[in-house]
């Protein structure tokens, strides 16, 4: 039996947390001490949904953005009719949820009330409509980093945009770690981008507290309640599940995998069977960046070993397995990378630091924020941000009729079944 099929993993209990009674909110003190020059990440007036109404009939559901939470939740773009503001509405049918899933929903809602940071996407407006739970969030008009890769940058992003996205995610991780929480779900689909250029980290359903009785633990042992699709991003120590446990540095490893994902447009280890991927990680194998020419090439030419000097331990197994994805008859109008992939030494060093096998050798989120790779981020304003995003375009309100009318009082009305060819957000676990 594979380790990944162990019953103790698949049936892990989600511990409920009474956050408002047990914890104070130190976030305002944390934000007041933040002297970051990352000016685009300040409080967002257009991204605030707390002042909107909690009446479902006040919202007109528009196009579907994605699905998630074991396919129990559907996310739609919606218009708040009294104000005209566009928001994202996630609707979950509570009657179809198991007890464990209800606990996960409760924890996510409670954590959203605790966390307050300009780079963390929280759901501060939650209400019920019969058997449905409605969670409102600001509309991320550029979608997720994963959607940007699939739609506009299939062969990877330019380094300036990578630095911009990773820096915003790191600010959110720094805040979570200061609060005593490990995210455990850092990946490109949980990094969202608003139309104003603000980077948000989502995926709070996977967050786990390292605080017990007012003290911070060195390590925890809980196996996250994830689908196998998240395994490529998880750290070796989290997958190992031994007596040493894992800690905050597990998120840093995941960030390194995200960096590789943004560089190449492909997820390391993704083409491996889960058991093989687990063995490779536990043996110390990790990915390294390849300096390559723009794709599609039609053949695996132009590859060059990373200048970082790091031996991946897998040879070309990870790189070749990923690159074969791009050689399967790409469309003629498929966007290509803007320049040959000659990665900078600072990017190589960042990935190497994040993917250290031993957690204690990885830098903390605060230490990574001062890495030389992120010096370029502080030069950006709104205009330069828009130039980084080209040719990506933000979502706009559709001209066609909405996918559904404002909900009626019926509790058993099915969720909208409108299909989308390409989800703007990826809400998978």
From TrEMBL:
Residues 316-343, 392-429 are annotated as: Disordered. Residues 319-329 have a biased composition (Polar residues). Residues 59-374 form the Protein kinase domain. It holds the Pfam family Pkinase. SUPFAM superfamilies: Protein kinase-like (PK-like) (SSF56112). Keywords: Kinase, Transferase. GO terms for cellular component: serine/threonine protein kinase complex. PANTHER family: SERINE/THREONINE-PROTEIN KINASE FRAY2, STE20-RELATED KINASE ADAPTER PROTEIN BETA. Belongs to the protein kinase superfamily. STE Ser/Thr protein kinase family. STE20 subfamily. Pseudokinase which, in complex with CAB39/MO25 (CAB39/MO25alpha or CAB39L/MO25beta), binds to and activates STK11/LKB1. Adopts a closed conformation typical of active protein kinases and binds STK11/LKB1 as a pseudosubstrate, promoting conformational change of STK11/LKB1 in an active conformation. This is STE20 related adaptor beta. It comes from Nothobranchius furzeri. The lineage of its organism: Eukaryota, Metazoa, Chordata, Craniata, Vertebrata.
